[in-house]
Automatic annotation (TrEMBL):
FAD/NAD(P)-binding domain ranges (all copies): 102-421
The species this protein was found in: Triticum turgidum subsp. durum (Durum wheat)
Pfam families in the record: Pyr_redox_2 (PF07992)
UniProt-listed Gene3D superfamilies: 3.50.50.100
Annotated GO CC locations: chloroplast
Name recorded for this polypeptide: demethylphylloquinone reductase
Single GO term (MF): NAD(P)H dehydrogenase (quinone) activity
């Protein structure tokens, strides 16, 4: 008996007059960050379902065609409400093989990239191995939980933001650097005689049209900073590589501008004390040392309210040891810009009146808890770490109620959502394999393995859920965290390169510390 032959693509049920397509006015940077939620295109004939958290993810096989796909968020993108567009002929993307299934993955963060690599690693019977396209506006994959190490100088950009072409060079995955303009699931397509059936089409901003049989939406969330007056103009988010490089540039400018002068210390304000805010506060405070102060504001009266107690206690201990000023139980009312006079130090709203002084930002804080008084803080740099918005806002046109987005509460990628992305990408890849080969799908069950957070160049906190009450802190926690992240890098080749680089840097740092200790002993003797 010869090898099994891939079945022809079945026809999709006609659902009446075509609905309006879903148009994306803004797509943004697909590679950045989000919650490991699931998205699906739901047809009335879909019956299979499984649940992720409190959101049901619909999976189905209408006429044998798997048209619903899981996704983890990993992108900075936005969507507008559906609009009508004029039909215009556009060039079709030339898939190499017209017979094998076509999988289009939108978004190259953890969910998108790791799903593509999972598909590549599976053994496919016969001619069923799909052609996989990965679309992302950026040319780099970003390991976001380690963006803080860029500010501390522990890592280089290539280590945590390798190029997609480098990661995928030994695979059959086709990477396309582009952004998405329009998405048309099959329910939006007219059925023309003689036209092959597809799961839908994607219009790219470059003008190319991509037909697909299976679609993976890995779009995630973007930072939402236009929350209060002045936040969008004067605050910086910290969710993408570009954000991290911008913050690094601002810090360098402040450090150079205040170097060797009798200037006031650099003041950095951080809004939000979840994981991201705490990690930023600890990293920047350690970097500035005696040249600056960090002020951290949080609406709750505690830091990291959702973190395990061990991690929260370790983080609070580090923040207190670094004399970080905590403003707990406050919300930011507005942010405005003023100028400080170099002569008198007085604050004015006009740069001319300041007589060549330097810019300052003023944050007006409103008490969120009883018994607290309103505060006014000054800062040279404001970092915003609270709030995010899903990249799939509500893809449900009024004339197409069968289009249902799940993951409506997209979150920026952090350690607590990163492990969801890893696990969902694994399930998404497997369920694609199962659907293509007519096998039963697996329900997703998230297993929380623990949480990690960096607290400085040689400090971190790790809580493992499989060992109750165990929290690794200090240098041991820091080393364990870097080891885990090294093992989670996308490919074996990149793991080896990063591991060697980190080992060499660690050896140099250890030697420098030893020399400093010996010099201190000799000097004191």
């Amino acid at each position: 008996m010869g090898p099994p032959v891939a079945p022809p693509r079945p026809a999709l049920p006609r659902l009446g007059a075509p609905a309006q397509p879903i148009r994306f006015e803004k797509w943004g940077d697909l590679e950045s960050g989000g919650f490991g939620g699931m998205n699906s295109w739901k047809n009335p004939v879909l019956k299979n379902s499984w649940r992720i958290g409190d959101v049901p993810a619909m999976f189905g096989l209408p006429s044998g065609l798997f048209r619903c796909m899981a996704s983890n968020g990993s992108g900075d993108a936005g969507f507008s409400r559906p609009q009508s567009i004029d039909e215009a002929p556009m060039p079709l993307y030339p898939w190499p093989d017209k017979q094998r299934p076509r999988v289009c993955i939108l978004g190259g963060g953890f969910g998108g990239l790791y799903t593509a690599l999972r598909l590549e690693s599976l053994v496919w019977p016969g001619n069923n191995k799909p052609q996989v396209m990965l679309v992302d506006q950026s040319d780099r994959f970003v390991f976001k939980p380690m963006l803080y190490e860029l500010l501390s100088g522990e890592v280089d950009v290539w280590e945590i933001a390798p190029y997609f072409t480098e990661l995928l060079k030994n695979t059959s995955v086709q990477f396309v650097k582009d952004s998405v303009k329009l998405l048309r699931p099959s329910d939006h397509l007219r059925r023309e005689p003689g036209v092959s059936c597809t799961g839908g089409i994607v219009h790219l901003e470059s003008g190319t049209v991509v037909e697909y049989d299976w679609l993976v939406l890995a779009l995630g969330a973007e930072a939402k900073i236009d929350v209060v007056p002045g936040s969008a103009e004067y605050a910086l988010p910290f969710t993408t590589l570009e954000h991290a490089l911008k913050v690094e540039s601002e810090l360098k400018m402040l450090e150079r501008g205040r170097f060797g002068k009798k200037s006031p210390p650099i003041q950095v304000a951080i809004v939000g004390l979840g994981y991201s805010g705490v990690e930023l506060a600890a990293t920047i405070s350690e970097r500035l040392k005696n040249t600056g102060t960090v002020k951290a504001i949080n609406f709750q009266t505690t830091i990291c309210p959702n973190a395990p107690p061990g991690n929260r206690e370790a983080a609070l201990k580090v923040l207190e040891s670094q004399n970080i000023q905590l403003f707990l139980g406050y919300s930011v009312n507005c942010i405005r810009e003023v100028y400080a006079s170099e002569d008198s130090g007085s604050m004015v709203a006009d740069a001319k009146e300041a007589g060549g002084g330097y810019k300052k930002l003023v944050l007006e804080l409103q008490a969120a808890q009883r018994g607290l008084q309103s505060q006014v803080l000054e800062a040279d740099l404001v970092l915003w770490t609270v709030g995010s918005q899903s990249q799939i806002l509500r893809l449900q046109p009024p004339d197409a109620p069968y289009v249902i987005p799940l993951n409506g509460r997209g979150q920026v990628e952090t350690e607590e959502t990163l492990q969801v992305a890893f696990q969902q990408a694994d399930f998404a890849g497997w369920n694609l394999w199962a659907a293509i080969n007519d096998r039963p799908l697996l329900p997703f069950r998230f297993q929380n393995l623990g949480e990690m957070m960096t607290l400085g160049r040689n400090d971190a906190a790790i809580t493992a859920n499989f060992i109750e009450g165990l929290t690794l802190e200090g240098p041991i926690g820091h080393a364990a965290r870097k080891l885990v992240y090294c093992l989670r890098m996308p490919t074996d080749e990149h793991r080896v390169k990063v591991g060697i680089s980190w080992f060499a840097k660690g050896a140099v740092d250890s030697l420098a510390s030893l020399q400093t200790a010996v010099s201190n002993i000799i000097a004191s003797s």
